[in-house]
Amino acid sequence: MAQAARILKTKVGIIGGGPAGLMLSHLLSKSGIENIVIEMRDHETISNTHRAGILEAQAVSMLTDSGVEGRVLTHGDEHAGIDLRFNGESHPLDFRELVDATVTLYAQNEVFVDLAAARARDNGDVRFNCEVTEILDVETSTPKFRFTDAEGTLFEVHADVIVGADGSRSFARRQMPDSVKQDFKVTYPFAWFGILTEAPKSSPELIYANSPHGFALISQRSETVQRMYFQCDPNENVDDWSEDRIWSELNQRVAGPDGFELKTGPIFDKTVLGFRSFVRQPLSHGRMFLIGDAGHTVPPTGAKGLNLAFADVKVLFEALDSFFSTGSGKLLGGYSDLALKRVWKAQNFSYWMTSMLHTPVDADPFMAQRALGELETVTSSRYGQQYLAESYTGWPHS
Ligand SMILES: Cc1cc2nc3c(=O)[nH]c(=O)nc-3n(C[C@H](O)[C@H](O)[C@H](O)COP(=O)(O)OP(=O)(O)OC[C@H]3O[C@@H](n4cnc5c(N)ncnc54)[C@H](O)[C@@H]3O)c2cc1C
């Protein structure tokens, strides 16, 4: 006989305890809106998964203004620019001077640790090691989902609203019927080979390098740990890359007449990161709403993924707050259209940065030269620099 599910009642049932799900849960609880977060991985695994690292000022404010632990201010590293490097020459862009804005380097796993600590501090209901396997009745006013906990007990969450915050392979997204959904996607013929190394900073600012050998990004994590990436084949095997081979590949991509060289050290993490641009439209169906990577993914070149997830949270939180305080579903009904406006701006920016900075291995020589012409245009024009600076540091939240 099938196991009877234990019923849990709440206002908002959130699937996924990544940054998007936890941030939404935190804001809802602050407004007195009961919610529950179901996360399939354990706390330690997520805390040790290295992903995003660049926060727009608005994402930082969402953390600090809402009372999440202020470590982002004490441990985050504020950056006022980037360096675009091509033809072996550096072209610094000063964001503060161009658009009076900065970004903060603060690793996504630290954001997760802070948000999870805030939920625990405020007695939030966040359940790790629990996988949602069924979603029911989203077209009614009592949507539900089922999950099984680590002991094998089956639960059924009855909510007023369900939120899919379950990342790029979203289970929630897959439950939307074909008749209501439209997917937009681009796959790229390259990926990023990412490393973490125990080494001093090679440069005070992030370096985005276009070279005949391919793209490289030199970024920082702290005074002693650095994050670097180089463009590679999507099927690259990290075990084929010795430390010497990695350093020589990275160095040839940033080399130039100025003699610039990377500061090296032991490499303790190697990953290949696939590239995809993806948008699901609409970002809602019935009483189910998608936020963050569940609804859209961007290639990491523009550093927009986590920031976009937080921007969705802001729009959806305000709509839910209005729904539960006034009973009006007007803002909820407008969530998808409003969030998608920013999503498409970020998709455009991420695609633009990616195509300008990367040269596919079999690229037409004309296209490689054209990309250099574009970099020259952007860096030699104040308007070009301002466009990049404004998009990189983030447009105002809706
Ligand atoms: C290497 C790398 C570098 C990046 N760099 C940047 C950057 O510099 N700046 C930036 O803004 N973005 C960056 N991103 C993107 C950023 O990491 C994502 O956009 C961000 O994680 C989105 O947050 P999320 O909460 O929507 O999704 P996730 O962080 O993916 O969280 C979703 C959660 O849902 C859980 N889940 C999934 N299915 C279920 C289920 N059925 N039941 C229960 N739980 C479930 C997952 O375990 C996961 O914890 C990067 C990504 C990668 C991979």
UniProtKB/TrEMBL annotation:
Pfam families for the chain: FAD_binding_3
Gene3D superfamilies xrefs: D-Amino Acid Oxidase, subunit A, domain 2, FAD/NAD(P)-binding domain
FAD-binding domain segment(s): 9-349
SUPFAM superfamilies: FAD-linked reductases, C-terminal domain (SSF54373), FAD/NAD(P)-binding domain (SSF51905)
E.C. number(s) listed in UniProt: 1.14.13.2
GO molecular-function term, one example from the UniProt record: 4-hydroxybenzoate 3-monooxygenase activity
Alphabetical list of InterPro entries matching this protein: FAD-bd (IPR002938), FAD/NAD-bd_sf (IPR036188), PheA/TfdB_FAD_monoxygenase (IPR050631)
Superkingdom: Bacteria
UniProt keyword annotations, A-Z: Oxidoreductase
Stretches that traverse the bilayer: none
Signal peptide: none
Protein name (Swiss-Prot/TrEMBL): p-hydroxybenzoate 3-monooxygenase
